[in-house]
């Protein structure tokens, strides 16, 4: 085997993120795109660099062996194209509970001689080698942290908690940052060692430690694959999908929730407060109707269920009312590329008498979901736990329709030079 120069650059590829918003049950770095995983696509760009690098893949603990095999395949594919891809410079380590912890585990296996460290998200699978080279060169030239970014083209508003506009943000001062993010090794390691608070990215961590971070021109192809529409966009970029508009069919989901009565609680049902009625038990306000609707919406979008998204261990939702759950569910569904077509909800129980407030509840839920909502209420003729007056049940069916999104332009962006 030919001896390779000792790498002075290391690239940590973080591949431990979940695939929830992508609608998958496994980590998104292991989702396939054009016959290869996102991780393999990301590694091929790293192996195509003009200088040898130490490659560190941080993978979920139960997928370390799979990640090692993917890295070997990526190295072999790059070697077949004439790129230097020495397999002995690839290391795979298990990640942690957070991205920051995963990066720290990657830093722990840096080799002697490494002077520059790049941290890259495997989900930015189509990032070209030229962007890696640009970041490495800028770190060498400046001696500070360097991150790629693109101009923000949308008008940005500051809003208050009720949605009121507080003002317009000067977008000339904004940059939508990407990875790989590069740093002198000593700065990045020291920042991770000294700061325990979670940061949104490594640039924020290094900046919080008092160091300057510089922004250079990013690349449109370095977009993050997070939702099903992102994956479709990536397929179009690779040419593995027919460039004609893809047909994304509507989706239907169902939800069911049950809560027992609790005499110590107030009753919240279908988003409304019911004075004088027995309340329902639960971590939040126990609104079975809203929870059933959320389950139906999340299920249709392939995003799991209420228990997984709004777990009882999350203190943010302790005592929260239905509007909080519905608004967050709508945000997740929209981010996954869908809008709500309509919702049909049925409430099952002896009390409260629902008919007098049916129109009020339908109007409230429809205003939050921005879609028609139909509510029916029934009893079980004294059968079962609802018939015995022990609690209330609710079932919901939701229709989601795909949002029509145009593929963004891949034109080269203007040069940026901003400090963050």
Automatic annotation (TrEMBL):
<dbReference type="InterPro" id="IPR034683">
    <property type="entry name" value="IspD/TarI"/>
</dbReference>
<protein>
    <recommendedName>
        <fullName>Bifunctional enzyme IspD/IspF</fullName>
        <ecNumber>2.7.7.60</ecNumber>
        <ecNumber>4.6.1.12</ecNumber>
    </recommendedName>
</protein>
<feature type="binding site">
    <location>
        <begin position="378"/>
        <end position="381"/>
    </location>
    <ligand>
        <name>4-CDP-2-C-methyl-D-erythritol 2-phosphate</name>
    </ligand>
</feature>
<dbReference type="InterPro" id="IPR050088">
    <property type="entry name" value="IspD/TarI_cytidylyltransf_bact"/>
</dbReference>
<comment type="pathway">
    <text>Isoprenoid biosynthesis; isopentenyl diphosphate biosynthesis via DXP pathway; isopentenyl diphosphate from 1-deoxy-D-xylulose 5-phosphate: step 2/6.</text>
</comment>
<feature type="region of interest" description="2-C-methyl-D-erythritol 4-phosphate cytidylyltransferase">
    <location>
        <begin position="1"/>
        <end position="250"/>
    </location>
</feature>
<keyword id="KW-0456">Lyase</keyword>
<feature type="binding site">
    <location>
        <position position="259"/>
    </location>
    <ligand>
        <name>a divalent metal cation</name>
    </ligand>
</feature>
<comment type="function">
    <text>Bifunctional enzyme that catalyzes the formation of 4-diphosphocytidyl-2-C-methyl-D-erythritol from CTP and 2-C-methyl-D-erythritol 4-phosphate (MEP) (IspD), and catalyzes the conversion of 4-diphosphocytidyl-2-C-methyl-D-erythritol 2-phosphate (CDP-ME2P) to 2-C-methyl-D-erythritol 2,4-cyclodiphosphate (ME-CPP) with a corresponding release of cytidine 5-monophosphate (CMP) (IspF).</text>
</comment>
<comment type="similarity">
    <text>In the C-terminal section; belongs to the IspF family.</text>
</comment>
<feature type="site" description="Transition state stabilizer">
    <location>
        <position position="283"/>
    </location>
</feature>
<feature type="binding site">
    <location>
        <position position="388"/>
    </location>
    <ligand>
        <name>4-CDP-2-C-methyl-D-erythritol 2-phosphate</name>
    </ligand>
</feature>
<feature type="binding site">
    <location>
        <position position="385"/>
    </location>
    <ligand>
        <name>4-CDP-2-C-methyl-D-erythritol 2-phosphate</name>
    </ligand>
</feature>
<dbReference type="Pfam" id="PF01128">
    <property type="entry name" value="IspD"/>
</dbReference>
<keyword id="KW-0511">Multifunctional enzyme</keyword>
<dbReference type="GO" id="GO:0019288">
    <property type="term" value="P:isopentenyl diphosphate biosynthetic process, methylerythritol 4-phosphate pathway"/>
</dbReference>
<keyword id="KW-0808">Transferase</keyword>
<comment type="pathway">
    <text>Isoprenoid biosynthesis; isopentenyl diphosphate biosynthesis via DXP pathway; isopentenyl diphosphate from 1-deoxy-D-xylulose 5-phosphate: step 4/6.</text>
</comment>
<dbReference type="GO" id="GO:0008685">
    <property type="term" value="F:2-C-methyl-D-erythritol 2,4-cyclodiphosphate synthase activity"/>
</dbReference>
<keyword id="KW-0548">Nucleotidyltransferase</keyword>
<feature type="binding site">
    <location>
        <position position="291"/>
    </location>
    <ligand>
        <name>a divalent metal cation</name>
    </ligand>
</feature>
<feature type="site" description="Positions MEP for the nucleophilic attack">
    <location>
        <position position="224"/>
    </location>
</feature>
<feature type="domain" description="2-C-methyl-D-erythritol 2,4-cyclodiphosphate synthase">
    <location>
        <begin position="251"/>
        <end position="400"/>
    </location>
</feature>
<feature type="site" description="Transition state stabilizer">
    <location>
        <position position="21"/>
    </location>
</feature>
<dbReference type="InterPro" id="IPR029044">
    <property type="entry name" value="Nucleotide-diphossugar_trans"/>
</dbReference>
<feature type="binding site">
    <location>
        <begin position="257"/>
        <end position="259"/>
    </location>
    <ligand>
        <name>4-CDP-2-C-methyl-D-erythritol 2-phosphate</name>
    </ligand>
</feature>
<dbReference type="InterPro" id="IPR026596">
    <property type="entry name" value="IspD/F"/>
</dbReference>
<feature type="site" description="Positions MEP for the nucleophilic attack">
    <location>
        <position position="171"/>
    </location>
</feature>
<dbReference type="InterPro" id="IPR020555">
    <property type="entry name" value="MECDP_synthase_CS"/>
</dbReference>
<dbReference type="GO" id="GO:0016114">
    <property type="term" value="P:terpenoid biosynthetic process"/>
</dbReference>
<feature type="region of interest" description="2-C-methyl-D-erythritol 2,4-cyclodiphosphate synthase">
    <location>
        <begin position="251"/>
        <end position="420"/>
    </location>
</feature>
<feature type="site" description="Transition state stabilizer">
    <location>
        <position position="28"/>
    </location>
</feature>
<dbReference type="GO" id="GO:0046872">
    <property type="term" value="F:metal ion binding"/>
</dbReference>
<keyword id="KW-0414">Isoprene biosynthesis</keyword>
<comment type="similarity">
    <text>Belongs to the IspF family.</text>
</comment>
<dbReference type="Pfam" id="PF02542">
    <property type="entry name" value="YgbB"/>
</dbReference>
<dbReference type="InterPro" id="IPR036571">
    <property type="entry name" value="MECDP_synthase_sf"/>
</dbReference>
<feature type="binding site">
    <location>
        <begin position="283"/>
        <end position="284"/>
    </location>
    <ligand>
        <name>4-CDP-2-C-methyl-D-erythritol 2-phosphate</name>
    </ligand>
</feature>
<dbReference type="InterPro" id="IPR003526">
    <property type="entry name" value="MECDP_synthase"/>
</dbReference>
<keyword id="KW-0479">Metal-binding</keyword>
<feature type="site" description="Transition state stabilizer">
    <location>
        <position position="379"/>
    </location>
</feature>
<dbReference type="GO" id="GO:0050518">
    <property type="term" value="F:2-C-methyl-D-erythritol 4-phosphate cytidylyltransferase activity"/>
</dbReference>
């Amino acid at each position: 085997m030919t001896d390779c120069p000792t790498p002075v650059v290391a690239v940590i590829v973080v591949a431990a993120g979940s695939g929830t918003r992508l609608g998958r049950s496994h980590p998104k770095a292991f989702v396939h795109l054009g016959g290869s995983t996102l991780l393999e696509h990301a590694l091929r760009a790293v192996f195509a660099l003009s200088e040898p690098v130490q490659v560190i893949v941080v993978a979920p603990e139960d997928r370390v062996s799979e990640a090692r095999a993917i890295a070997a395949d990526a190295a072999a594919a790059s070697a077949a194209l004439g790129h230097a891809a020495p397999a002995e410079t690839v290391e795979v380590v298990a990640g942690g509970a957070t991205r920051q912890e995963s990066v720290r585990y990657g830093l722990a296996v840096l080799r002697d001689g490494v002077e520059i460290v790049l941290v890259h998200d495997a989900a930015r699978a189509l990032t070209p080698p030229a962007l890696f080279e640009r970041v490495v060169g800028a770190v060498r030239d400046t001696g500070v942290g360097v991150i790629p970014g693109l101009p923000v083209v949308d008008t940005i508003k500051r809003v208050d908690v009720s949605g009121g506009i507080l003002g317009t943000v000067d977008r000339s001062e904004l940059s939508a940052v990407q990875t790989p993010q590069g740093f002198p090794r000593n700065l990045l390691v020291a920042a991770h060692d000294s700061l325990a608070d979670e940061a949104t990215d490594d640039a924020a961590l290094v900046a919080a430690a008092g160091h300057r971070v510089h922004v250079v021109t990013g690349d449109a192809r370095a977009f993050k694959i997070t939702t099903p529409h992102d994956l479709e966009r990536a397929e179009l970029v690779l040419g593995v999908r027919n460039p004609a508009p893809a047909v994304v069919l509507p989706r239907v989901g169902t939800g069911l929730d049950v809560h027992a009565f609790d005499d110590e609680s107030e009753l919240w049902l279908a988003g409304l407060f019911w004075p004088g009625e027995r309340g329902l038990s639960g971590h939040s306000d126990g609104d079975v109707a809203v929870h059933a609707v959320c389950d139906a919406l999340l299920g249709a979008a392939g995003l799991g269920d209420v228990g997984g998204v709004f777990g009882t261990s999350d203190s943010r939702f302790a005592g929260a009312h239905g509007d909080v759950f519905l608004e967050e569910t709508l945000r997740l569904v929209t981010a996954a590329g869908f809008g709500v077509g309509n919702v049909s909800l049925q409430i099952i129980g002896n009390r409260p008498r629902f008919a007098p407030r049916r129109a009020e509840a339908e109007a409230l839920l429809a205003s939050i979901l921005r879609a028609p909502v139909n509510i029916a209420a029934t009893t079980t003729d004294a059968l079962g736990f609802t018939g015995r007056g022990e609690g209330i049940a609710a079932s919901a069916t939701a229709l989601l329709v795909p949002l029509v999104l145009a593929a963004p332009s891949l034109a080269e962006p203007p040069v940026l030079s901003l400090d963050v």
